[in-house]
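Lab manual, section 2.4: Encoding a predicted structure.

Procedure: take the sequence of the chain (310 residues), apply the prediction step described in section 2.3, and record the output as structure tokens. A sample record is shown.
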Amino acid sequence: MTGGAGFIGSEFVRSSLSGSLFGGKPSKITVVDALTYAGDMRRLSTVSRNDGLVFVKADIKEELVMTSLIAEHDAIIHFAAESHVDRSIERSKDFIQSNIVGTHTILEIAKNLSKVVVLVSTDEVYGSLDSGSADETFPLKPASPYSASKAAGDLLGMAYATTYGLDVRITRSANNYGRYQDCEKLLPKLVTNLSKNVKIPIYGDGSNIRNWIHIQDHCEAIARVLHLGSAGEIYNIGSEESYRNIDLAKLLLDYFRLSEDMIEYVTDRKGHDFRYAINSDKATKLLNWKPKRKLLDSISEILAGIQFLS
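Recorded output:
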């Protein structure tokens, strides 16, 4: 598992080792993480002594290291990625190296060793939609260096599936929320600020729309893709919960019993996509998967995770 000390990867590790995900508890998980700004070993503290977990600090682009590790396993779940859109606008080279070159390294090794690869991607590769929702056949139209780098990784994966017959499966999820998320992300930033009675920044007029999914629902879907998915297939992983950013902010203000004076409108991000929306019917039908959790029921969990990492 690459990026297993990150937000989503660590949840998958914890849930897998507890046996709560589809497919049951694996005999062994090897986590590879370079522990850059997004990786934090504290996320794995509850399972660090588990006999089924091996941790290796390494860069996924280190071919010799990755080859020796991948050779010992049946499948690779590739979580490792640079993922913050604002950072990608200022430092795009880091995203190219991690999300494209790093993904290519994983695919090349998997091809040579005939391993299954699950690439964990994002709904942002579809770009902004004025209406409707994107299914897995929808054309890719990434707008940021981040989403472009993820789209490139997806295309590499599909190319390896087509050209070499590699068993590649791709998930594209909506915005995640849950325990131990980085405070630079939208929802933890809003929750952190409001819990401290600090104003919350909202880009532009706040009309941008995002779909939200709990990290545990996402990880359950990934487990089902690993055990039930098919080679060369893509699976959208979304939910019924979509909010304008301003409406999400107001819901949180109500939760914390604060006024709308706490909202601070800031200059909009360059190339800010207006609306993301994905159709997850394929995952529901073929994987027997549906999201179970609701965003507003998870605020205390989000806040506890933020406090744990602070």
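Check your result against the sample. The chain is about 40% helix and 15% strand.
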